[in-house]
Amino acid sequence: MEYFVQQLINGVTLGSIYGLIALGYTMVYGIIGMINFAHGDIFMVGAFLALIAFVVLTSLGITAIPLALLLVLLIAMALTALYGWAVERVAYRPLRHSFRLAPLISAIGMSIVLQNFVQVAQGARVKPLPPLIEGGITLLDNGTFRVELSYVQILIVVTTVALMAVFTWLITRTRLGRDMRACEQDMRMTSLLGVNVDRTISLTFVFGAALAAVAGIMYLLYYGVVDFYMGFVAGVKAFTAAVLGGIGSLPGAMLGGLLIGLIETFWSAYFSIEYKDVAAFSILVIVLIFLPTGILGRPEVEKV
Amino acid sequence: MTDAATPSPPRFAFGAALKSAALSAVVALGLFGLMVGIRTETGPTGSLIYWTRFGDVALLVAAVFLGRFLRVLAFGDGPIRLQRLVPARWQEASAGGERFARLMPGRNLGGIFSIALLGFALVAPILFFNNRYALDLGILVLTYVMLGWGLNIVVGLAGLLDLGYVAFYAVGAYSYALLAQNFDLSFWVCLPLAGILAAFWGLILGFPVLRLRGDYLAIVTLAFGEIIRIVLLNWQNVTGGPNGISSIPRPSFFGIPFNNDDDGFAAVFGLDYSATHRIVFLFYLILMLALLTNWVTLRLRRLPIGRAWEALREDEIACRSLGINTTNTKLTAFAIGAMFGGFAGAFFATRQGFISPESFSFVESALILAIVVLGGMGSQLGVAIAAIVTIGGFELFREFAAYRMLVFGGAMVLIMVWRPRGLIGTRTPSVFLKQRKAIAGALVGEGRG
Predict the structure, then answer these.
(1) Range of the domain at B33
(2) Considering A186, B194, B250, B407, which has the largest number of Cβ atoms within 10 A of its Cβ?
């Protein structure tokens, strides 16, 4: 029972990180209908930028953890957002009206570029970060097994919930959110009504990348290591989460992220850790067969 | 935004170009400032240390500034049109080439080029007999040509986007390695078996994805490729896990081994023994396999199933309305594409003598897909040229191993932006009424499967 609760906590934490990445996928897919294959690597770039910012801030003498964390969050979000913007501008915008496969191929190319750029710039070795936030709360203790809820886990879940709330407000209540939803429905009509479509799409990428940066920081805090290849698997799983929840739907992405996190954690805990990725990918295949539009997605109507 | 319809977009003024370049330089500073400027590394005590490289950042920013400045000055903000850089006289000369093509009806330039390429491939082992490196490179290129043609059946003809093609390559390679090692079967028995097993896996993948289209299909095939790789990596007692399988039997010349013994290839044919004999044999073997792929594809395109593939690519709904069984059509495309992937895999295993899951990562799938798309999906000649250019380019950058993937990814993006339809974007229909005509790729809608 204690073991189960502990895995539940770990699963929710991991799920929150996946959910944050999945939001970026689902927003971009919703608005321009393409898989932003480079999004997982944007997440990796975010984690690296956070690591570099930490190192620099520490050497500058800023050692107060809350202040350093806040600064790192701001720096990594801003710079990763810039990466998101640049990727859209360079690789996707020229292909806006091209045939369907072109942006996907371009995105795969961009993903390879980002991975290898970071490898060249920062080296191929795994980079560790000493734990910044230590300690936690012991929830249950039966003498043999203790259920721990660490402060990092609390931070991750609280940040995710807060960002989710801000995002829901952004999409449903602001001018920008309205523009985004309009673009999603009919891009040409939206531009006729005086909305700057290019700018709206750019901002979608910017916000998606900023969220991925937050996920990157959380990952860095939680696992304490980053490497240039981590974006690929995390990205595929986050995409799985977005599809599972129903692509295009923000609550769906979060729900999908949580489910994938839980499935992966429980699979590792009770079956085999080697095959945890197989479990996640198999879920994707099964969901797509029986529930092609995901849990919260709208059915796609095909017009001839 | 520059309208494509206007004959010549107004050139940007000097000031505007300067402003645009300065903006790009600021963005570049943001992108590279931390990532390139600060190099982190694990120090001797295990904690992170860093050193600065602001000189590199300055160089990168300057390069972006200059690049953007020249681009805006030459082309404005619109698309890059290389014609504008070529003097009018040269343009007339290139029009002469088209006239030449018209002078030779029935034998278009592509056809002549294909025959020349094939002829070169046939004599290459004789020309480069003493150049082991060139022969190895040729074998590598031909392997990718074959993989490209195999994937072309799935992506180019049937329009089903497959990001996990490497899985079938892996199934073929492991099938051959395991069959040859455990049951002592010869290459010529294992080759069809590897193809059949890969085709079987193609069907297994095909069934669940029958209802999926476009991007969903892409991601499920990707997941499938990863599943196969993870299983190969972890199923220690069968596949050897990360250590792979080594000392895989080498191919023999229809039962005659390539060695220095009395019953070896050299002795039987009365030749002096040379290790190159095997390489030359492998070269012709993969050339034959690749040509088989090409021939089968070309023949299938004339059969009802091939036409059904192309119909499926163009419009699935129309296809179904006309009574074509889309289930069978998709499954055969997956199975036949996978079969050729399996053949290539068996060849890969026998050539290398060693296989491990590392050779079957997603990057490999992306590389094969890039070859198909860069070549212009559906064009056999285009795929062959793209394979030569891509693998050849890879070899050119061999000394800069760290940078070559970077360049490869960048080239993928640039070529997509420059020619989204690939190098050979025109289509030649397999069925025509009076006259065979090439159709511009822009007029063909596809890739929705």
Answers:
(1) 14-87
(2) B194
Determine whether the interchain pair A110/B222 forms a contact, defined as Cβ–Cβ distance below 8 Å: no
pTM of the model: 0.86
Instruction: Please check whether residue B3 lies inside any domain of the structure.
Output: no
- What contacts B433, CB < 8 A, 6 or more positions away? none
Q: Which residues pair with A226 in a beta bridge?
A: A127
Distant-in-sequence, close-in-space partners of B186: CB < 8 Å, separation ≥ 6: B180, B249, B252, B255
- B201 and B300 inside one domain: yes
Which chain B residue lies closest to A102 (C-alpha atoms)? B420
Query: How would you class A162 by CB atoms within 10 Å of its CB: exposed for 0-12, middle for 13-18, buried for 19 or more?
Result: exposed
Contact by Cβ (8 Å): A281, A235: no
Residues B55 and B120 in one domain: no
Domain regions of chain A by residue span: 2-290
- Inter-chain CB proximity A304 and B362 less than 8 Å: no
User: Both B367 and B275 in a single domain?
Assistant: yes
Are B36 and B132 part of one and the same domain? no
Measured CA to CA, the distance from residue B121 to residue B323 in angstroms comes to 43
Taking CA–CA distances from B409, the nearest residue in chain A reads: A109
* pLDDT of residue A144 exceeding 80: no
B187 and B321 part of one domain: yes
Are B283 and B212 in the same domain? yes
pLDDT at residue B449, as a whole number: 36
**ipTM given for this complex:** 0.85
Residue B94, min C-alpha distance to chain A (Å)? 27
* Sign of the torsion angle spanned by Cα atoms B199, B205, B208, B214: negative
In this structure, is residue B67 part of a structural domain?
Answer: yes
Residue A160 pLDDT? 92
Least Cα distance to B312 among B303, B324, B304 occurs for: B324
Residues B83 and B148 in one domain: no
Residue B443 located in a structural domain: no
As a whole number, mean pLDDT of residues B195-223 equals: 84
> Residue B87 corresponds to which tokens in the numbers above?
């003097």
The count of domains in chain B is 2
Give me the residues paired with residue A137 across strands. Answer: A149
Question: B448 lies in a domain?
Answer: no
DSSP per-residue letters across B191-254? HHHHHHHHHHHHHHHHTTTTT--HHHHHHHHHHHHHHHHHHHHH-HHHH-GGG-B--PPPP-BT
Domain A2-290 class, CATH top level: mainly alpha
Query: For residue B378, which residues of chain A lie inside 8 Å, CB to CB?
Result: none
Residue B279 tokens, joined: 């390489």
Q: Distance from CA of residue A269 to its chain's centroid? A: 23
Helices and strands (DSSP H and E) totals, chain A:
11, 4
**From CA B143, how far away is CA B367, in angstroms rounded?**
12
Question: pLDDT higher for B276 or B92?
Answer: B276
Distance, CA of A24 to CA of A26 (rounded, Å): 6
Residues B151 and B22 in one domain: no
Report the alpha-carbon distance of residue B166 to residue A15 in Å, rounded. 29
Rounded to whole angstroms, the Cα distance separating B256 from B437 reads 48
- Measure in Å the smallest separation between the Cα of B220 and chain A Cα atoms: 6
- Residues with Cβ within 8 Å of B120's Cβ and at least 6 positions away in sequence, in order, are none
Question: Which residues share a beta bridge with A256?
Answer: none
